[in-house]
Structures are given as C-alpha cells and as structure tokens.
Design goal:
Length: 217
Amino acid sequence: MNKGFIFDLDGVIVDTAKYHYVAWKKIANDLDFDFTLAQNELLKGVSRLKSLDILLNIGGITKSDSERNMLATQKNELYLELIEKLDFNDLLPGSKIFIENAKDQAIKIALGSASKNAAYILKKLGIAHLFDARIDGTMVSNAKPDPEVFTKAAKLLDLNPTNCLVFEDAQAGIDAAKNAGMKCIGIGDKQVLHRANLVVTGLDKITVPQALEILKK
Ligand code: B16
Ligand code: MG
C-alpha cells in the first residue's frame, strides 16, 4: 500500500511526559522557582532547548548560551536516569498493537519525534523493529510546528505527504503535520487539539480502517 503512518513518540506511543516533568521541575527548584504540571503542558512536543527557554521565562530568569547548554545537559542527565528502567510496560494502551495492525495491512511506519533520545527509547520499549523509518531531534534543524520532521519522514518512506497520516499529542505537532500537507489524528483532549482532523484519547480508541478513512477524506 502506498500509505504511511507517522507517529510522534512522547504522548502517543509512550508516556514519558511525566519523566520530562520531574527532570524540569528539579531544574526549576534548583533555580528557586516552582514548576507546575499545568505549566508542563507548554513543553509537550517542544525541543529540549526551547523547553528550557520556556522554563526560564516562567522563572523570570535570563541565562547565557553556555549556561543554557549546561542546564539542558543537566536536565537530560536527570531524564536519562529516570527512564533507565523504561520497558514495554510504559507503552501507552493500544499503541503497539495499532502499529502492528497497520504493518499487517502493508502501511509504511515512521517515527517523527522531537526527542534526541528517541532511538534509545524505542529500543528500551522493544519496538524499534516496527519502524521502516525514523526522524528524531538529532536529524532536524527546525522544531515543530515547522514541518521538517514529517516531511523528512515521508521522504524516507518514499511517500507523497498527502498519503501520510500523522499521530500527534501536541498542538505544535498537529500544526507541523498541517504545514507538511498531511492529515493528522490528535491523541488527547479534543478542546486542546481542535486543529486535528480527528481527536481520540489514545491509540486503543481507533482502528486502522478508521484511521485510513481520515486519510481518504
Ligand atoms: P529530548 P515528541 C518531545 O518528544 C517531547 O514531547 C518534549 O517534551 C521534549 O522536550 C522533546 O521531545 C525533546 O526531548 O530532550 O529527549 O530530546 O513528543 O516529539 O516525541
Ligand atoms: Mg508528543
């Protein structure tokens, strides 16, 4: 089939947002300000350095470029410690079976994630073999909502963007998919992700034929 599904990682396949939150909160607390779960929503789908800038802005703090790089490295070290024990139990409900079902129907599968830790996480989850292509934060210069991550994924799959369907949990990611000329299924809250073509609460709430219908419309 000349169709492709492109999956975001954090918030679509695996619940790593809670670990990102703990690590960012520690950075904030060390700098003497609090960082709430509600504020953490602002960082979903956003690159590491951009996330740091949002965090520093919340704390009303300015840092030099070298200090920013140090803080981002520190956050990532904390995050890597937290996800050390990550395994298939951390997969979000229905994600693996949905991808397997899509593969069974000869749909090409790609990852389109902002995370620089994506390859490591896929390996830990034991699902790396399911992906025909992977574009992650180590391979793009422009963060979502720029379409680069999805445009590159479609190229690797050798597909026209109009034949690709993106699965995203962040508004920036949905905008990136739209900017790439792709249809998009939002994973999460309908009120927040209203620009998606369809919103479901998880990959356990949609079937492959239903997703293909969205691509046809
Ligand atoms: P890292 P996604 C994104 O992954 C996360 O949603 C976001 O919270 C994180 O800051 C970003 O990856 C960068 O992650 O620090 O591991 O490079 O949702 O695009 O799969
Ligand atoms: Mg995400």
